[in-house]
Amino acid sequence: MDLIIxxxxxxxxxxxxxxxxxxxxxxxxxxxxxxxxxxxxxxxRYGDVIAIDRTSTAFEPGSSVALVGANGSGKSTVLRxxxxxxxxxxxxxxxxxxxxxxxxxxxxxxxxxxxxxxEEVLRMGCYRRRGLLRRxxxxxxxxxxxxxxxxxxxxxxxxxxxxxxxxxxQRVLVAQSLIGSPRxxxxxxxxxxxxxxxxxAILEIIAEEVAKGVTVVFSxxxxxxxxxxxxxxxxxxxxxxxxxxxxxxxxxxxxxxxxGRLLRFESEALLVDDHGHGHAxxxxxxxxxxxxxxxxxxxxxxxxxxxxxx
Length: 310
What we know:
Blueprint: E1 4-7, E2 37-46, E3 49-59, E4 64-68, H1 75-83, E5 90-95, E6 101-104, H2 118-123, H3 127-130, H4 138-150, H5 166-178, E7 184-188, H6 196-211, E8 215-220, H7 223-226, E9 231-235, E10 239-243, H8 245-248, H9 251-258, E11 262-265, E12 268-273
Parallel strand pairs: 4-8, 4-9, 6-7, 7-8
Antiparallel strand pairs: 1-12, 2-3, 2-5, 9-10, 11-12
Helix pairs in contact: 4-5, 5-6
């Protein structure tokens, strides 16, 4: 199993460095918009297995949130709750009216069977608003061309999706998710295992969407990627810490989330993450789902009211 070693220290970042950030009115001001999604004491359990324990938080418009944690920490569960694909065992989720979400799950090769051309895969992004039976319009085709250009997949339109590399597939799926201009974009480890050009293309799109006022929530095992976000939620079956990267990506918090995988050398901390992605770029693995394995009730040292004002 490959080990990914990352520096756990996070330097102070300027607004230009923190490319996923967006300027917003202070929370509570007259012009402050309502949260896109609000969790109130939300918990998800599967029998005696706790996927995510009691969590109260809000996701603001035009914000970027990185979900960080080991396998089984609850990252995918939070994304599925936000997407409306899962329901909480207890607690309440409130969504703003008219907010459409697009969710890109981890791939792990599950689309290898898809014999469709890339253009048809992109057309499927129109189904959310048109359904399966209504015809694609000229406006739809123009939008498909636009998102294809943004993700640099225009030259792949007549290629079979199943024949593409992992990075190309992910860029196609990100392009598909942008059709219809969803206001909530959810990505489960969007750049893990991809080639560098695909990583850079997807990170640029995330920054552009946040700048447009879209709420972007993504999971990651990579601290440098998480440090680009405006806000980081560190998970271990419950919320360990929630705030800016400087506040959250600290050795004491990471030690709680990752246990013995945090090593200390003098004043610097290193995170040894046995993520299980033992593959080369653009290869896939058969790794299991993120969120299984917490069989005890987490009792945090302090109550996590995790909505962060900015």
